Amino acid sequence: MRVVLDTNILVSALIAPSGNPAAIYNAWEQGKFTLLTCGEHLDELRAALQKPRAADLIKPYKAGPSSIRSKSSPRTSSNCLT
Questions:
Q1: What is the rounded CA–CA span in Å between residue 82 and residue 9?
Q2: What is the pLDDT of residue 57?
């Protein structure tokens, strides 16, 4: 199964280790689905993670588009959902 996750789901999962967003994030990390992403989505995620409030709440080792990029399936801009 291939899934596109909203940036808010990813950020919420990184902030709170329990709850539905975290369950979705953990299922992806366990290989239960392939996360689809694109450059624009990673840029949006990067911007969200750099906001002071998010940065204060997220553990540095868990956050970052690079970890998501390395585990996701890239899509071209024409295939990126916004």
A1: 14
A2: 84
